[in-house]
C-alpha cells in the first residue's frame, strides 16, 4: 500500500486538481455541482487520501474542462514518445487501487504513457478482481470511448442491460456514456489493456 501511495504522490493527481480548481476560481462546492461528486470525496481526492477510479477522474476532468491526460502528464516533459518496459513495472508498484467512499473497486490500473503531454488517448494496464457483480459497480462518462483488450483471464462485462463474457484475446470498443462495469469471473484476476479516448470540449 505504501508503494501505491508513493506512486499516487508521484503523479500528484490531488495537487493538480486543487491547483487547477483554484486557478479557475472554483470552490469545492462548485466543483461538486459540476461533477455530481460529493464535496467530502473531492476533498479526500485533493488531499490524496483516496485514489479515484478512472470514471471519477473523467468526471473531474470534464468539470474542470481538461482531458484525462491532464492527470498523468508531466508539464516539464517534452518527449514525443513514452516507452514502458515490462521490467520497469514492478509487481508491487504497478497499479493504483481505485477507491470510492472507502470501498475498493474491483480493479487496479497503471498508466502506460505517464508523463507524456497533450495526449488524445490514455492507455492503462488494468487488473480486475474476481467477485460477485453488484449494480453499484456501474459507472459512465458521457462523450467518451474506450477500447479494452483482454490479455489474461476471463471478464464479465456489464453494459447497460447486457452481460458479455470476454476471454483472453477478445477485445471490445464501446461508448462509455452508457453504464458499464467489469468483474473477473475466472479462478483469479483478469488483466487487460484499456485505452480511453476523452473528447475535448
Give descriptors for this structure.
201 residues, 5 helices, 3-stranded antiparallel beta sheet, alpha+beta
Description:
The structure is a single chain. With 201 residues, the protein is of the alpha+beta class. The chain has helices at 2-11, 13-23, 28-35, 39-46, 54-64; strands at 96-100, 103-111, 121-128, 144-152, 154-159, 162-167, 171-175, 180-184, 190-198. The strands form 2 sheets. Strands 1-2-3-9-4-7 form a 6-stranded antiparallel beta sheet.
**Helix-residue proportion:** 10-25%
C-alpha-based Rg, rounded: 16 Å
Q: Give the overall form.
A: globular
Mean pLDDT, nearest integer?
79
Strand order of the largest sheet: 1-2-3-9-4-7
Strand content: 25-35%
**Number of E-type strands:** 9
The main sheet comes to: 6 strands, antiparallel
Distance between the termini: 36 Å
Low-confidence stretches: 90-95, 99-103
Helices and strands, in order, run as HHHHHEEEEEEEEE
Helix/strand class: alpha+beta
- Count every helix, treating DSSP H or I runs of 4 or more residues as helices: 5
Briefly, what is this?
With 201 residues, the protein is an alpha+beta fold. 24% of the residues lie in helices and 31% in strands. The strands form two sheets. A six-stranded antiparallel sheet has the order 1-2-3-9-4-7.
Amino acid at each position: 500500500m505504501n508503494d501505491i501511495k508513493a506512486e499516487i504522490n508521484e503523479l500528484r493527481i490531488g495537487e493538480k486538481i486543487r491547483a487547477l480548481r483554484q486557478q479557475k476560481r472554483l470552490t469545492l462546492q462548485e466543483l461538486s455541482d459540476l461533477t455530481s461528486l460529493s464535496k467530502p470525496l473531492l476533498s479526500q481526492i485533493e488531499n490524496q487520501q483516496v485514489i479515484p477510479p478512472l470514471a471519477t477522474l473523467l468526471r473531474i476532468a470534464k468539470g474542470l474542462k481538461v482531458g484525462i491526460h491532464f492527470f498523468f502528464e508531466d508539464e516539464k516533459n517534452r518527449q514525443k514518445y513514452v516507452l514502458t518496459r515490462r521490467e520497469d513495472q514492478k509487481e508491487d508498484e504497478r497499479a493504483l487501487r481505485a477507491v470510492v467512499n472507502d470501498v475498493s473497486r474491483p480493479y487496479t490500473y497503471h498508466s502506460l504513457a505517464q508523463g507524456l503531454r497533450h495526449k488524445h488517448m490514455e492507455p492503462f494496464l488494468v487488473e480486475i478482481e474476481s467477485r460477485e457483480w453488484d449494480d453499484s459497480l456501474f459507472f459512465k462518462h458521457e462523450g467518451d470511448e474506450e477500447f479494452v483488450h483482454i490479455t489474461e483471464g476471463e471478464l464479465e462485462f456489464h453494459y447497460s442491460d447486457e452481460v458479455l463474457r470476454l476471454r483472453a484475446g477478445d477485445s471490445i470498443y464501446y461508448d462509455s456514456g452508457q453504464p458499464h462495469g467489469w468483474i473477473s469471473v475466472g479462478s483469479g484476476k483478469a488483466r487487460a489493456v484499456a485505452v480511453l479516448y476523452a473528447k475535448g470540449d
